[in-house]
Amino acid sequence: MLIGLDPVLTPDLLHAxxxxxxxxxxxxxxxxxxxxxxxxxxRLAGVDVVHALRAVLSVLPADTFVAAPAAVMxxxxxxxxxxxxxxxxxxxxxxxxxxxxxxxxxxxxxAAAEAAYAIVQTAERRFYGNVLxxxxxxxxxxxx
Length: 144
Description:
This protein is an alpha/beta fold. It has one domain: RbsD-like fold, CATH 3.40.1650. The chain has 4 helices and 6 strands, in the order αββαβαβαββ. It has helices spanning 11-19, 49-57, 84-95, 106-115, and strands spanning 25-29, 41-44, 70-73, 102-104, 118-122, 131-134. The chain has a 6-stranded mixed sheet with strand order 2-5-1-6-3-4. Helix 2 runs parallel beside helix 3 (84-95). The two termini are 24 Å apart. 39% of the residues are buried. The mean pLDDT is 95.
């Protein structure tokens, strides 16, 4: 354990976040997500996606060179809807200075997650509890 870090930030997760370069992505996904299709899998048993996201956002800068550094999976047959879990994800993003997540069609989200640096599978049981984050840079002055 380390002082000042959420204990959800496990050694494997911290390593992945630190090893990622700017412009690389990490996917936080729900318990039903087919996460074994990705390059690296990190499991966070007993942690919902909102708690995992809050912990990750406490150390991860947003990519300010892309229009949408965060994306969520759109609801099949209702792409403009925002389930409660997506609303909670967007609230966390905005609380940490990130813009709201854009929606990606389900199979586009899968393809992006499979190409991501890592997939973090949470214990989230609410459908569509998935978010893809693009890492930015930390400027020389250390600000975000």
